[in-house]
Amino acid sequence: MAIARFENINVNRLTFGKSSFGEQSTTVSLWFATRARVHSVANNVRISDKYRVYSDVVNFTLNYTPNTKEVVDNQNLYSINWKNFDWRIDSIRETDD
Description:
The chain has one helix and five strands. The chain is mainly beta and 97 residues long. β2 (24-47) and β3 (52-61) form a beta hairpin.
């Protein structure tokens, strides 16, 4: 059984750019800091015929605010910083209380 806990996280805005040489860059800037319920921390390995795909999965539960609604609508433009690591948002689910 996993332990659920509340921890501080930072929600970052991502800006994508391209240099005159065609090099792509991503700029990360803090949008807001909040507390989230952290649970289901898991390290997964998926093995196919040719590849091993390693992925870390963490579930964050946030209270509904206009900021979180913006993240739901445009999840590719945001990331989460937790324990000094940047996490990309894979999928977001809205649920009723």
